[in-house]
Amino acid sequence: MNFIETFSGDQLEAGRWSFDLAERFNGAFGGTNGGVLAAIAVHTARRESSGRRPTSVDARFIRSCPPGVATVEISALNVGRTLSVYSVDVVGSNGKLCTRAGVTVVAAIQLAGDVSEENLNDQPHYDDAEAKAWLHPRGFKVPLIDSFKPRSCHQGRLTTTRVLLPWEESNTAQEAACVASDISVGPPVGRAVKGRAGIPNPDLTLRFTPAPEIVSQVEARCELVDLNVGQATTRIDTWCGKNLLAVGVSTTTCIPQ
Q: Class of the 3-108+124-256 domain?
């Protein structure tokens, strides 16, 4: 199964797509997981730009996206020789704007391909023996747990979460990084909040690396860097084995129960 098939996507016309977002991709707050919505924005920009490589996404989750057929409208803000910038709107089945994302893509052939450096970051701390599978909260079901099978292990303020991808397609590492990064935000904030508040994250900002063609499982390392007056800030880096896929940040709003 490829990415489009996973989310029942279909191109309606140039700049306009539909995705039938099943309930199994819902997060803990009743709508489609934000990482999935960011991944859809990245993927449509990739397709509309004839396969240019995504370099960044800035996704704003404006309101919950209900299950059902969502419409994605994408427009080019600028198409350059090297970089192109797209604005992507995801409109839910209720007709309301749910997510607005800015996606930048690059024509790799225009880059100085001989300029390289080994990854300067440390590999993520992930140990199968230490990692624990996510469980549904008592009396409450979080559909994405069954869809992506996340497992996490902790080290201080740092949590590393592994997810399994429900699609098998080359050159979708950036889409995978969106999903893993967004899912990884919850555990370190949740450990600090200890059930005292709900913890939705209304945004996700990622910068992608030139990634390997094939990824199947991805580890996202998320660090809680600040928690003050009901707002948490997290820093994320996402990996496939020894390959860094993305770095980013996210905000979490702590909502009274």
A: mainly beta
Map residue 57 onto helix, strand or coil.
strand
Which residue carries 């704003």 as its tokens? 60
Rounded CA-CA distance 153/137 in Å is 18
Q: Map residue 141 onto helix, strand or coil.
A: coil
Find the helix packing angle between 186-193 and 173-184, rounded to 10°.
0
Structure tokens at 234: 């997290």
Residue 85 has pLDDT above 90, yes or no: yes
Mean pLDDT of 244-249: 96
Structure tokens at 157: 């303020």
- Eight-class DSSP state of 129: T
Domains of the chain, residue spans: 3-108+124-256
Rg, Å, the chain Cα set: 17
Distance CA 10, CA 256 (A): 39
Give the pLDDT band (50/70/90) at residue 119: low
The pLDDT tens digits for 101-110 are: 999 999 999 9
- Residues 6 or more apart whose Cβ sits within 8 Å of residue 80: none
Q: How far apart are CA 70 and CA 94, in angstroms?
A: 8
Exposed/middle/buried for 243, CB within 10 Å: 0-12, 13-18, 19+?
middle
